[in-house]
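tool=predict chain=A
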Amino acid sequence: MPGLTGGKEQTLRKTKKIAVLGLLTAIALTIFMIEAQIPPVVPVPGVKLGLSNIVTVFTVFTMGPGAGVAVLACRVFLGAVFAGNFSTILYSASGGALAILVTIGLRKILKDNQLWAAGCLGAVAHSIGQMIAAIAITRTLGLLVYLPVMIVISIFTGLFTGLCAQYLVKRGGKLWKTIFK
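tool=predict ok
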């Protein structure tokens, strides 16, 4: 940013990053709210496409782990507020926490054409996190019978979200580096 002093340039960068994170959070939240209106396809509680995770995976791989955590945390909290269902925040937060940890861990080893794997493994981790929360809340180990079904579905939904994030990352290429730096 030519012509700016160090302090002003740093402030401008921080402001730009906050604005971009706000936009990504708004996109993720909008996708989440639209998806919430779609009736369940499978009669297993907690199973859905998880389309807002496209934004989370994209953010982790383009802006870094901290940005991904920020977008996820804001989306989980605001999703509970706007959906009017705070009981779901525990399931979303526990699943999201495991998923983001897996995604961040994979960031160092995956190439841009392998983000589909982050989508799959993140979705499986999300299902495991949700199951842990469900068992902790209900104290019902019998819920584990749903886990294999949830994991199989997670592989397919995660593949889709991971491929979408991969497409976005590859399609933007150098543009994302320009925007996010």
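The chain has a mean pLDDT of 91. The CA atoms of residues 29 and 75 lie 5 Å apart.
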